[in-house]
Structure formats: structure tokens, C-alpha cells
């Protein structure tokens, strides 16, 4: 039993962590190439835009994880027809919300750029990036939905390959569009937008080969089913939205303290942090099919073992990430500080060494929130996610920045995740399944 659990855990988690790291490289590649081509102003513009990318990504994950969770539970209970109804509604809902984002991109990108804090020096770059990613939102959302369902349809390897292929394509196209073709900020955004299209092309193999249990059906968009999908995926959405809210809050406060150079410094930290968060999200999404299956079969021993393995894995990764960033902080910052700005180097180095302490708690929070969501404890999962994404982080940033300026801002993330970790462990301890 133990060997089987470990084998399944390693299979799903390792593949999904690799895939999520690949996805995080979408923005990291943009950060690197933009820093070389457009300097601190380009990084500042990108950092203001990433919050919107997180909202789009979160929407796709909410539908994908929510729908795939219900799919996996129903599949383990042999409810084959209902599984395909869930899949069909998820795809239709993703297309509808993607169209709404597209319309916003066409008619409101300039207003959105101003709202996010772009001044005259970075307005056009911010607007360009925002408009481009919003217009391709349907593809980002569909990609997240299809990957989640393919993973839950017993094909985690293809889901990982799709994510890796999309990310590698993004890196290659970033270079081509920004340097040989000289397309600037639009080139960076366009490369990012082509990546999910390529990824969808890879996942289509799952359907073409005929081994898929997934079928698109003609069915009504019943409100009760939509609410069920969104509720189960809400923690995944909030986790992504937390990144957006944190980015917006940090950006606006940092602008008032250090201006665009401060935002550029935070841009380096935030984009590197995406890799850490991606690893923890990969662990959480990797255990989701296993947890949903164990829950559907009412196997509490299996569930406890999977959760324990996930938490231990997250702590190992957190230790590794923090050690590397602490020891090599100067070199890491230099990679993205193409203008060798002394102020950016100083702010970023201090920020990395403080901010990344929060990963020891963030991994725990992301995993427990996903675990609760996958076992239909949507309310507790939501409360954990909203606490770390908005309720605690925003006042923490505002209060600590007044007391300790930039140092307070970096510590706000750490203290927020630590406080939420205590609450997350409490939520988990009060649930006794199948007893």
C-alpha cells in the first residue's frame, strides 16, 4: 500500500511540478529579455501588468481544477455520463469568460494601465502588454482547463509535456521577437500569448489518439453545476488572485516610497517568487487527482499519507529555494539588473533574503487549501486562500511599510503566510473524514 501511494505521488507530483515551473517561466522569460532590451522601465511596466495575467490564469485554474475535481470524484464512482457534462460545461464557461477578458482588452487597456499605477514614462509599454494578453485570454483559460482534465484523465505525463512545450516555445519566441525582430514589449507579450496555443496543440493528442474518456456533449449551462465547479476551484483562483492583489498593493505602496526603481526591484523579486509558488502549486495540483480519488473511495488512510508526503516535499523545496537565493542573491539580482543600477541591486538583495522566508509557510497553505478543495471542504479552502490573498496581506503591507518602509513591505509577505499557516493547520485538524 505504502509503495503504491509513494509511486502515484511521485508520478503525479513530479510531472506537475515540472509543468508548473515551465508555466512560471512564461513571465520569468519576459522579465529577463525585457530587462536586457528595455531596462528598469520595461521591468516596471511588466510588473504592473502581471497582476492581470494572474487574474486570467486564476480564472482558467478555477474552472479547470474545480471541474477536474468533480470529474475525478464522479469518475471514481463510475458516473461516466455526468463526468462529460462537467467537462462540457467547463469548456463553455472558459470560452465565455475568456471572451469577456478579450472585450476588456480591446476597450479598456488604457484605463486599466492608469489604474494599475503606470505613469507617462511606462504607460505605452504597460498598455501594450495588457491589451495583448487580454486579447489572448480565451487561450490561456482553455489551456489551464484542458491540462487539468487531461491530468485527471490519467495522463499527467502529456499534461507536463504540454506545459513544458509551451514554456520553451515562449522563451525561444521571446528572444526572436524582442531582439532579431525588434518588437519590444509587444514581442514579449505576443510570445507569451502563443505559448498556450502551442500547449493546447500538444494536449489535443490525448483526444486524437482515442484513449480519452472526455467527450464534449450538448448540455445546458445549469447554474447549480457552474456554482459547483467554481466553488471547488475557488481556492486555486484565490491563490492566483492573491498574487495579483499582492502585486497591485505592493506596487502602489512601493511607488510612493521608491518610485519606478522600487517597482523594478519588486518586479525582480515577484517574478523569481513565481517559480517558488509554481513549485508549491505543482505539488498541490499534483496531489489533487489522488486526493479526489481517495475521497471518492472514502479511503482516509490514503488521504493522510498523500497529505503528509506533500507537506514534507514542500518543506524540502522551501529549504532548497531559500538557501540558494540567500547564498547567491547578488548573482541572481545581477541577471535581471542589466543597467547595473546600484539602488535596484540593494533593494532586490535585501528583499530576496527576507521575502523568501515566507515560502516555508506558503507551501503549507497552498497544499492544505488544495487538499480541502479536493475533498469538498470548499468553505475552509476559500477562507485560507482569501486570508493570504487579501484579508491579511493588504493591511499588513500598509501597516509595516509605515513602520519600516521597504523592510516592512518584505516582511509583510512572511508574517501573512505564517499567520495563515496556523489557521490552515487548524482547519485541517478539525476535519475527521469518514469517521
Task: Please explain how this structure is put together.
- This protein is mainly α and 435 residues long.
- It has one domain (2-429).
- It is 87% helix and 0% strand.
- It is built from 13 helices and no strands.
- The protein has helices at 2-76, 80-115, 123-135, 137-152, 156-178, 184-208, 223-296, 300-327, 329-336, 342-355, 359-374, 378-391, 393-429.
- Helix 1 (2-76) packs across helix 3 (123-135) and helix 11 (359-374) packs across helix 13 (393-429).
- The radius of gyration is 21 Å and the shape is globular.
- It starts with a helix and ends in a 6-residue tail after the last helix.
- The model has no long low-confidence stretch (mean pLDDT 89).
Beta-strand segment tally: 0
Content-based structural category: mainly alpha
Order of secondary-structure elements: HHHHHHHHHHHHH
Percent helix among the residues? over 70%
Query: How far apart, in Å, are the first and last alpha carbons?
Result: 21 Å
Radius of gyration: 21 Å
- Mean pLDDT, as a whole number? 89
Give the amount of beta strand, in percent.
Answer: under 5%
User: What's the domain count?
Assistant: 1
- Helix segment tally: 13
Q: Low-confidence stretches at least 5 residues in length (pLDDT < 50)?
A: none
Q: Per the principal axes of the C-alpha atoms, what is the gross shape?
A: globular
The major beta sheet can be summarized as: none
